[in-house]
Amino acid sequence: MQWKPNTTVATIVEQDGRYLLVEEETEYGLRFNQPAGHLEHGESLFAAAIRETREETGWEVELQHLVGIYMVDKPDSDITWLRFAFAARAIRHHPAEKLDTGIVSAHWLTYDEIAACALQHRSPVVMHCLDDYRLGKRFDLDLIHHQP
């Protein structure tokens, strides 16, 4: 069997100095994460990021930049995640939409509030992506090509 990393997307959405995070149920209890999830077969990275953000938060977003690509190995496992983190602008909220299974709620948190709950993050990459965003790391979306 050939090894392949799990491709995931995450979206950093900032509005009025606050960042959109989800609180989700995991095997380790409640954790905080950017809106994020797995790339589905036949889907572009862009479509996956927009879809996951809406499914997990009820927010429609417009992608603006790629913040970074992160490779994360799960300890004591052969599982590796390849995360594409995007910066996005909030467009419209759909509060009546049911959130994905496992998502408890969506929160708009300040950087300090996010840093204060670092032990409850889904992964250390949550803070790494946010710090890269705050450092101004931005790459044009045309860096990524999708051949359907």
TrEMBL record:
Its cofactor is Mg(2+). Gene3D superfamilies: Nucleoside Triphosphate Pyrophosphohydrolase (3.90.79.10). The keyword Hydrolase applies. It is an enzyme of class 3 (hydrolase). Keywords: Hydrolase, Magnesium. Belongs to the Nudix hydrolase family. NudJ subfamily. Monomer. This is Phosphatase NudJ.
